Amino acid sequence: MTVDERLTLEQGLLLALLAVDTVLFALLELFFLPLRAGVVPVPVTVLVGAVTTPWLVWTTAKLVRPALSWVPLAVWVLVVFGVGMLGPGGDLVLIQDWRALLLLGASALPGAMVLGGGPGRAMGRRPGRG
C-alpha cells in the first residue's frame, strides 16, 4: 500500500465513526472528571480515558489504516483542550488540580505509546541490538 492510495468509502466512514466516538469519550471524561462521592474526589473517568484512548488508536490502525492512527489521539487532545479551556458559555471546564493532570497523563500517554508502538516494539528487540 502506498501513501497515495485513497481511503475506501467504508474506511472513511469508519474513521469518521471512530472520530465521533473519540469526541464523545473526551466529553464524557471531561465533564465527569469533577465527580465526587461526598467530599472525596472520584476521578473514574481517568480509567475510562486510560482504556478508551489507546483502544481507539489501536482500532484505527487495525481497521482503517496504520498511517491514520494518530487521528483519534489528535481529536481527543483537541476536544479536551478546546472544550476544557473554552467550554460552553466560556466556562473553564478542565478543572485546575491533580485530576486534570491525571486525565491527560493516563489518556494521552498510553494513546501515544500505542501510536508509536511503545512497549510492543521495545519487547521485540534483543539486548545490544539498538
Describe this protein with a few key phrases:
5 helices; elongated; mainly alpha; two-stranded antiparallel ribbon; 2 strands; 130 residues; single chain
Write a structural description.
This protein is mostly helical and about 130 residues long. Helices cover about 65% and strands about 5% of the residues. The chain is built from five helices and two strands. The protein has a two-stranded antiparallel ribbon with strand order 1-2. About 5% of the residues have low confidence.
Counting H and I runs of at least 4 residues, what is the number of helices?
Answer: 5
Shape: elongated
Question: What is the terminal-to-terminal distance?
Answer: 27 Å
| Radius of gyration over all CA atoms, rounded | 17 Å
Order of helices and strands: HEEHHHH
Report the major sheet: 2 strands, antiparallel
Strand content: under 5%
Structural class: mainly alpha
Overall helicity: 55-70%
Numbering strands along the chain, what is their spatial order in the largest sheet?
1-2
The chain-level mean pLDDT equals 87
Topology, number of strands: 2
The parts where pLDDT drops under 50 for at least 5 residues are 122-126
In short:
This protein has 5 helices and 2 strands.
List the helices and strands and how they pair.
Blueprint: H1 9-31, E1 36-37, E2 40-41, H2 44-63, H3 70-85, H4 98-116, H5 118-123
Antiparallel strand pairs: 1-2
